[in-house]
Amino acid sequence: MCRLVLACAVFAAWVCGFLGPASCGVYYNDRPVIGVLAQENLESDHDAKGSSYIAASYVKFLESAGARVVPIRINETEEEYRKLFYSINGLLLPGGDVDIEASQFTRVAKIFYELALKANDAADYFPIWGTCQGFQQLTVLTSNKNLLTLTDTKSVALPLNFGPGAQNSRMFKNIPKDLLHSLSSENITSNFHSWSLSIQNFTRNAKIKRFYKILTTNTDGKKEFVSTMEAYRYPFYAVQWHPEKSPFEWIDKPGMVHAMSAIRASFYTASFFVSEAMKSQHRFPTQADEEKALIYNYIPVFKGVNSIFIQNYYFD
């Protein structure tokens, strides 16, 4: 009996430490539902159906940490998005290749971003995560301009250069020391982007600088750019690298890493973001509404081992 009580106390302490003070209070959501934003189909995708897609690796990334996923389609009304916002517990903006100033992806991302700002200002916790293109989209939404610059980072794995703000950041303050060492010393973060937010442009833009804290940087040998950041006042997080690729994408090309340390980094970041979503009190109106919205209603298409995305979900 004593051992059971001790074990429960240890678990409670871990939950409180990892999830933050909100998890130690009255509310703790152990059934989080996170929205993943779809984007316009690629012109080069000959298997594409409908008008938009979500790479399955982003869905698996969230599911690996105990979340369920709702696809957010790009052809719905603002009122429908508002209703969905108050039903889900967080938003993931995935990587891809669309216009981050004029696409339908951008239109919908802006709606959710502005709803999230207002909700968090009203103590209604709602986290956002951006990966690669999602990182870039967040910079545009925050600064109201495109601050990106070209870098030679199309297919390369890099170690992270941790800045002074990382140690006390929400994202990294509880990271295991051995994983922190791996991330800072091994080439395990996958980069597949041609555009980056340079340190110079970050520093020169007052809106971005006031809003986000730099956690890590990288360089292509010529330009130093932001690779991980989190907002000061909001639960918004962004990585220019791809933590979802190591366990869930299998194309054989430079930059793809399947080392155990890379897979641990993927699960750590997924677990962190899902823990943030667990602080959200949003709920679907009914269980039937929730079940109808979940990604389980859709079947992913196998793209082949030579595709950058091994599976895609497609939507009308």
TrEMBL record:
Signal sequence, start to end: 1-24
GO biological process: tetrahydrofolylpolyglutamate metabolic process
Keyword tags: Hydrolase, Secreted, Signal
MF terms (GO), sorted A to Z: gamma-glutamyl-peptidase activity
Catalytic activity entry: (6S)-5,6,7,8-tetrahydrofolyl-(gamma-L-Glu)(n) + (n-1) H2O = (6S)-5,6,7,8-tetrahydrofolate + (n-1) L-glutamate
Species assigned in the record: Silurus meridionalis
The protein's enzyme class: hydrolase
The protein's name: folate gamma-glutamyl hydrolase
